[in-house]
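Hi F.,

I've been meaning to write this up properly since the lab meeting, where we talked about keeping a consistent format for the predictions we share between groups. The idea is simple: the sequence comes first, exactly as it goes in, then the C-alpha cells exactly as they come out, then a line or two of notes. No screenshots and no reformatting. I'm using this chain as the first example so we have something concrete to point to.
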Amino acid sequence: MQVVQQQIIQNRSQSGECRRLFHGRGQTFAGYEDLVIDSYPPVVVVTLYRQRDQDWLSDLYRLLQAELPGLQAIFLQNRYLLGSPGQVVFGTLPDEIDACESGLRYRLRLDHAQNIGFFPDMAVGRGYVRKRAAGKTVLNLFAYTCAFSVAALSGGAKHVVNLDMNRNALNTGRLNHRLNGIDLRRASFEAVEFFRSVGRLKRLGPFDLIICDPPATQGKSFTAERHWSKLIRKLPDLLVPGGEVLACLNAPHLPARFIEDLFDEAGGFHPLEGILPGPFFPEINSDSGVTMRTYRWQGGKGDEVRA
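Output, unedited:
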C-alpha cells in the first residue's frame, strides 16, 4: 500500500482540479495493475478490475481519508463484474459532482454504469484542441458528453458539431456547455450514427478540425479493427484543404502503429505530432495506453506540410 500512498501524495491536486491519483492499469506498479483512483474533489472514484478482500479495501479507504483533506465521499466501481456496478463506500455524494480541469467544468454521472461521463486520460488532448481551435469550425465525432466541444469553444472555436448516437450523453453535453457559460448557438448536437450521416455532415461542413475519439467497440456500429479504416476514408469529404484531424485510439490490444498505418495507407494525410496522456498515466508500454495522433489533410499522399 506504500506505493499507492506515494502516488496519491505526489499526484493530488492543491487547486481542486480533477486528477488521476493512481494509474495501476499502466502496469508500472507490480501487484496493483487492477487499481485506478481518480479524484474529483470532494469525491474520489476507485475503480477495480479484479476482486479485492474487504480488509485491503478498508485500508485503502482509510488511506484516502488521511491523505485527502476535505474528502466527502468515496465511490467504488467494480469493473470486473457484469454491468460495472458502483456504490458509495464512504461518506455521502454531493447532489452534483463536476470534474474541474483547466478552469472548465464537466458534470459526472456516477449512476450511469461503466462510464461516468468524463475521461481524465484525454486531458492533454482537450488542451491541444483548446489551443488550436480559435476561429475554426469543428466536428466532434463520437462526442459522448462533449468535453472536446467545451474545450474547443472555450478556445475560441467558431462552431462545433457534436455527433453521438447516445441522446442522454448529448444531453449531458448540453449541460456541460451551460456549466461553462457557452452559448449553445455555437454548438449543435446530432444524435445519429456516423456512417449513416456522412451526407448530412457534408452539408454542415466543411470542417477545419475533426476530432475522432471512438470507443474500442460500440456494438455493431463500431469496432476498431473493422471501422477505423472506413472512418478515415470518409474524412477527406468533410475537411477543408489543410484541415486537421485529432485521432484518439483507446484500445489496449492495438498498438499505436495500428492508427498510423491506416492513415498512411489512406494517403493524403500528413502526420503532425503524437500526443501522450501525460505524467499521471505512466505506462510500461506506451502502445498499451491511449494513443493520440494529429494529421493535416493535404489532398495527396506525400505532399509537404504548408503553414
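Notes:
The chain has eight helices and 16 strands.
The two ends are 50 Å apart (CA to CA).

If this format works for you, I'll send the rest the same way.

G.
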